[in-house]
Amino acid sequence: MKPETAIVEIHKKYKVYTERYLNDAADKTIILVNGSLATTASFAQTVRYLQPRFNVILYDQPYAGQSRPHNRHGQPIRKEDEAEILLELIEHFCADHVLSFSWGGAATLLALAQRPRRIEKAVINSFAARINTPMRDYLESGLSFLQACDRFNVGRLVNTTIGKHLPSLFKRFNYRHVSSLAEHEYMQLHFHIREVLTQDTQCYVACADAIEVPLLFVNGEWDEYTSAEDARLFAGHVRQCQFRTIKNTGHFLDMEHKAAWHDTQQALLGFLQPVSSLAKPKSTPPLGSLHRYAASGRLYSHSAAHSHLTR
């Protein structure tokens, strides 16, 4: 099903490309928040199991994807700006739920701390409460490559660290995406990484203290960069929270293999909808179906977020 697309203006400052997948039978709307530099394409697999249940909203940050031609790129966008964009889109589309991936979790927690009146639940995928040693090593390695616009080494670094558990076909398309970004996107990511490395990540914990809606944190068992253990540090700060670890899976969760797709689907739907309201889940897509998404160029710009070197 093709989405409705639109450019939404935010405070006369940003123009944001959006996609809306409508479901006439759904009474809830969920908005998905990309990681840094990702595009709407990064959620291709996620939409497959959300759209039969919800109206689904995707969007590109002003500096990326199909938002990029509509905006100026003189100054980097801060995580606070991304949170404000999210809050405006929640109101614009009357969203009930939020789902974030990787660095998108930072903006999502900041936004939820402002207690948007419409939001009932939120899912935070592949995000943690601290910068551990593997993540710090990863981010510090990327700084010089990004500043020099060293496309080869940026792409290589992503695929040998956060993206190392992706199928080989996805890695090839991931590399193509990461190594073909505009120069301002590299500078945006460089800004994000410096922000992450120099600021106290306790700000995210402080945000969690102010959040009143139930949260689900989902992390991959093999993800050493945003580990399940580090995500559980939020437990003492969020009033209502649950945690799910997806077995035999790294940072990219539902993109890594069909069992991960199925298990991530079950974790998300089990949290977002009461068990009694769940119809029989759709079968897991065959691996060939996942490969067709990659081959069609709709691969992971998830890499564009944590895959793109930031959290």
Automatic annotation (TrEMBL):
Pfam families: Abhydrolase_1 (PF00561)
GO terms of molecular function: hydrolase activity
Keyword vocabulary terms for this entry: Hydrolase
Chain ranges of the AB hydrolase-1 domain: 29-257
InterPro entries reported for this sequence: AB_hydrolase_1, AB_hydrolase_fold, Carboxylesterase_BioH
Superkingdom of origin: Bacteria
Cited SUPFAM superfamilies: alpha/beta-Hydrolases
Protein name, entry field: Alpha/beta hydrolase
Organism expressing this protein natively: Pseudomonas cavernicola
